[in-house]
Amino acid sequence: MVKCLLVLSLALSPTLQAAAPRPASTWQAKVATSLPLLGHRNWILIVDSAYPLEVSPGVETIETNAGQLEVLRNVLGQIDHAPHITPNIYMDAELPYLTDQVAPGVLQYRSQIKPLLQNRPIQSLPHEQLLTKIDEAGRTFHILVLKTTMTIPYTSVFLQLDCKYWTTDAEKQLRETMRVAHPQ
Fold first, then answer.
1. Average per-residue pLDDT for the chain
2. Could you give the number of structural domains in the chain?
3. 105: exposed, middle or buried (C-beta count within 10 Å: 0-12, 13-18, 19+)?
4. 9 assigned to some structural domain
């Protein structure tokens, strides 16, 4: 009998341990653990609550249950401290044309996001073009989508990651050197 109980307790022990609850992972922790793996051509999107759930294999969506400005501030701060990546920022071209009459709160949003993005170049594209870029990139590269509680349209911020330690100018210079060294 004692032998049976010992065998039964040993058999159930891993099951009981496996069933123990794991601590919940936060979106901040997910960004922190993802950043070392991400590089140029990856994207991080900080999106409004109506942004669609993508089905492309490279797209991972996380519900933050946080405000968009809070999420953007955190992500930009983490990227700024990363030694290997820098963001190319894209925003919806529709945003400057919205008024408080059609999108209540948009004027306040624009005034609040401006200092967060100060001194950073921002490219504007129509929303559908940005979705096409994400769809194409998601076929090959990882895209992290952070859904926020934002309920104003056309407020998503799209961060296309680029290499921090190798600039576009350096790449052009390298290609020119190679072309001159080995003309075709």
1. 88
2. 1
3. middle
4. no
